[in-house]
Amino acid sequence: MLLGVDYYPEQWDEKLMDEDMDRILELGSNVIRIGEFAWHLMEKHEGEYDFSFFDKVIEKAKAKGLKVIFGTPTATMPAWLARKHPEVLSQFPDGTKRTFGGRHVYCFSSDIYKSYCEKIVTELALHYKNEKAIVAWQIDNELGHEGSDVCWCENCREAFDLFLHARFDGYIDELNKTYGTAFWSQEYNSFDEIPLPAPTITTHNPALRLDFERFCSANIESFAEMQADIIRSIIPDAVIMHDFPGGGLTKHVDYSKVASHLDKVAFNNYPVWGGQKYPIAPNEIAFGLDYIRGLKGENFWITEAIMGAQGHDITGFLPRPNQAKMWSWQGMARGCDSLMYFRYRGATKGAEQFCYGILDADNVKRRRFYEVQSFFSEAKKYEEVLSSPVKSDVCIVYDYDSLASFRIQQQSILLDCEREMKRYHKLFYDVNKTVDVIPSDRDFSQYKIVIVPHMIVGKGEFLTRLREYAEKGGCVIMTYRTAIKDENNNLTFGKVIPVDCCGLAGAYIEETESVQEYACIPLAGEGENSGKTAAAGIFRDMLVPETAETLYRYDDDFYRGFSAITRNSLGKGRVYYIGTTPEEKVLKEIAAEAMAFAEIEPLESPEGVEIVERSSEERTVKFIINHNYFPASWGSVTLAPFEVKAITEN
Fold first, then answer.
1. DSSP per residue over 298-319, as a string?
2. What's the rounded Cα separation, in Å, for the pair 379 and 3?
3. pLDDT in tens, 581-617
4. What is the DSSP letter of 381?
5. For 431-451, how does the pLDDT look when each residue is reduced to its tens digit (9 = 90+)?
6. Cβ distance 49 to 18 under 8 Å?
7. Which residues contact 228 (CB under 8 A, 6 or more apart)?
8. By the number of CB atoms within 10 A of the CB, which of 91, 132, 288, 630 ranks highest?
9. 480: buried, middle or exposed (CB in 10 Å: 19+, 13-18, 0-12)?
10. Other beta carbons less than 10 A from residue 503's beta carbon
11. Residues 6 or more apart from 416 whose CB is under 8 A from it?
């Protein structure tokens, strides 16, 4: 278990280094994370590499028994590179260059930039190839974050043309046929006529836009793979990781594909950021952790856990005493097995002066220092439990192409796919059941319940696996806007929706409607739900059952004959189709029924009290987490505000 801090010694007087490391040790740390933003220090002039500063840092760390996570510095290029090659800078949609001075301002399509990255990463790996104190290599920093996942420069236009040329084997007529470019007279005679889908009047072709999303993702994946391959070629036993930001499901990059090139996934966990009056809800923090764990289906690291208030230009909420420590425990309980705090000491200069660390700029040990110290001391007692795999009976399956399809054509202004996933995740969070959030190419056969929300791009291989899973006894929960489009983001001629899975759902969709309210559609219970009423909104499918039972129907004047929510028996399993977004009480009913069918026992707790059970070969431990701003109890266990208790059961 690695426990430590993000340390930026290059930003401070070297004379502080010994005292800093002694204090880092006093915290109970065994690792420091360094180097990720120090390209100029390593290469002040082109081709003149100098790693002597970090040699000293590592030597001091080794002497004090600290391990090192070293970051490649490619997220922030040196000024000389931007001046010599301004073409490496990425562009906004209007063609304006992103100026040097921020971070992540490079273009992933720039061969020039990639060549400089290859050189610095190669030199860095060669220099430290025999350094045993380096226990992991971090490539870049938060790939695709802060809008850097999309660029509109000439490099990208040329690279996108090559991407499409390869995708269609050089046949422009095949692209025209696939995209349906006869619409609006958009036929192309050659690939170099194809534009980037920058803002235009009305909108671009949806198939073109989906391929651009795939291009952006492949570009970033390739960049990560390049760095990982260089390091592995020089240091075969290197542990290679990357620190992913939050909001991964909203990015123009499939982070699960990036993760496939890593040995370890890491997460920068920010439950609150500048400008937020309050932190995000505990279940949403849990969703982010479960998503990161799902990138490789393995435990992960947290490389940036917060302790103080955060923000660049606008600061925000200060975590209350023990609240940030509680978030660290929540991360560990849900699969983090190594954790570093951002940052050891708050900066006095630069853009992150108000990203407060363990220490403030006055360098005085206060409450936050001792909270970290106590957390490290306590976490070490459960190392073997926290290093064990998280075992979940429920998964939520997402699909990058489908998420991109909704970014392209949202359909309802209220439809937010990530928010809808969190809605389903919360049903199980509230009864203390962990949920794996996994990509659609992952095997899901071991789960008892599989949730498929808004998978609008229907893929035959996935739908076949889903049907087989249900027939063998699995429980599926599907939502509206599933299997509507083909893999090119087009509707399918001559097939009823949901395409190729009407038999799975036991129903077909007669018509659909996008509504722009959350609770404007009345629902009435049918059969065992007779007499119940509810409201729904955002969107609705008008379902016509074939083999499925109706659980709720629409109850407005024109659509009373259509089902809203159905349940289908299929082989040994069952399939729920949720044709709208009903209020939470209805979703809770369905989740409870699904858990009973799947023989999953809910674990009740007071609101704001989260319980996560983890087991090793030696013992089972329940981590009881009080997210409330007031004391709470679970059985005989009493907890102060933000307190966490670990109860060993055997």
1. S-EEEEEEE-S---SSS--PPP
2. 9
3. 999 999 999 999 999 999 999 999 999 999 999 999 9
4. G
5. 999 999 999 999 999 999 999
6. no
7. 139, 240, 261, 262
8. 288
9. buried
10. 15
11. none
